[in-house]
Design a protein that fits this description.
- Helix content is 75%, strand content 0%.
- By secondary structure, it is an all-alpha fold.
- It contains 4 helices and no strands.
- The chain has helices spanning 2-16, 24-47, 61-86, 91-106.
- It starts with a helix and ends with a helix.
Amino acid sequence: DETRVFLLVVIVHSADLYNAFKPFASSQRWTQRLYREFNLQCELERSLGIEPAAFMTASTTKEVAQGQQAFYNYVVLPWFEQVVRVMPAHEAQLSACRRNLSEWLRQI
């Protein structure tokens, strides 16, 4: 039963990271939407006297790409590298993540 719960957690968390292995053009559009949402949240937080998290304040293409570089290197790739260790059939998703990271790096 613990194994089933663990696998469900892995599947749900992987689904949360789905944008990272979509085709880059689509992933980039969703990332832009996310950063628009981040910017709105930052405005609200500042109006309440709260300092927003640094990763949410990116506004230029370069800053967004740098944020994505960190996100891929510290969250996405380590996660999918471990997923592939136990479920090798997901190698294609890991490869897609690496391709997308390469695209983000070109924008820095």
